[in-house]
Structure formats: structure tokens, C-alpha cells
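Example 3.2
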Amino acid sequence: MEKTIPRRLVRGLTVLGVGASLLLASSVVTGPAIAAEDPDTVAPAVLAVEDLDGRPLTGEALREFLAQDAARTAATQPDTVPVAAAPAGTLADRDQIVRFAAAELGNGERPAGSNCTKYSSQCVAWCALFSTWVWRKAGVSIPQYPFTGDVYKWGQRNGKSYSKANLGSAVKGDVLLFGTGPSSPSTSTHIGIIESRSGSTVKMIEGNQQNAVRRVTRTLSGSTFYGGTRP
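Structure, written as C-alpha cells:
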């Protein structure tokens, strides 16, 4: 029987030995199925990325994305505050959230590298500003938060956040939080809106990905996300 031996490429991106492959030229990662119920399973974090025209990112452009994504979504320290789950609150129109988010694909910074976008008058890191802008446009009563952890804390106060142990409950329209917890920018590093989910795979729309709104397909795993928040 062949043994599967993980080989680490970048944080959260692993090739699973025999019978698995990472094809940078076609943006495809294949390997054993990962159960969504196991939030700590090590799996490829990024399965596919689209360019600003909706085509699969390939070659050097994909390698550059993976390196930047690993650097910007990695928590630099563990969060010492427990990430508590909360009961579900009322549901927003999730289809509308997804439509509004998808309509922004390709939009971003003007000029590139400035952090200045239509989503806020603040020229700061804007992944959370984008996510809350979309939610607000869909009728969700949430402030526009620049810091990702504040979105999770808002959800805790309003009965809408869940920890990585409950990632199996994530559905379209939710946001997922990257890192180890919501305490600070060094523990809560990025955020994205779920466009769709199939088992342990989530297709996400994320702001502030290489200066723009991009679609990224990821593995739903506690090694990447510390939790999620419902609209």
C-alpha cells in the first residue's frame, strides 16, 4: 500500500504525496478528499484563483499570488482569547450578498498599491471594508469595519459568529476569518465572502487580493480559518 507523505510548499499549501498533484500551469490541486467536519486537517489552502478577467491564474502569476497570499493571511502569533461560538441569528438575503459581491470582481485600488477604493474614504487595508460594504448594500445592519477581527466580534455580540470547530455550518453569504483569533491584526489577518460551498471546498470573493476583488477557491479548514460570521 502506497504511503501518503505531506510536503510543505508554503504555509497552508501542501502536496499530498503519491496520487496527488499541484499543477501551477492549470491552477488545479488534486488529492485525497478532506472531510469538512475535521477543521484541523492539513490540506491545500488555495485550490484555484481567477484573474481579473475571470480566467484561471497560471504560471508565474499564480506562484506570485500563492506566495503573497501565504504571507498576508498567516497569523504571526496565536490568539490567547478563546474563539467562542454563538447561536445563529436571523438570516439575510444570501443570494443578494453573493450577487453584489460578484458584481465587484475586478474592481480595486486607484491607483494600484494605494489602498484607496470605492468601498471607503479611508486608504487602508480594505478586505474587511469590502466585505462589510457588500453586507451593508444587501441590508445587513453592520458598521463598516477596517479590521477583520471586529467583524467576528460584531457577530459574537449579535449571535452570528461561529468558531473553527463549527466551520461545517458555513454557507454562502457568510464571511470566513483567516488566522488564529479576532484580537489583533497579527492574529486576524484577512476575510472573504463565501460565494458557494461544496463539501470541504469554498469559492470565495475577497477584497484586497493583489490590489483588487478576486475569486479564490479554498479548502474549508481550521488551519486557515479561525471562524466565520453570518450576515
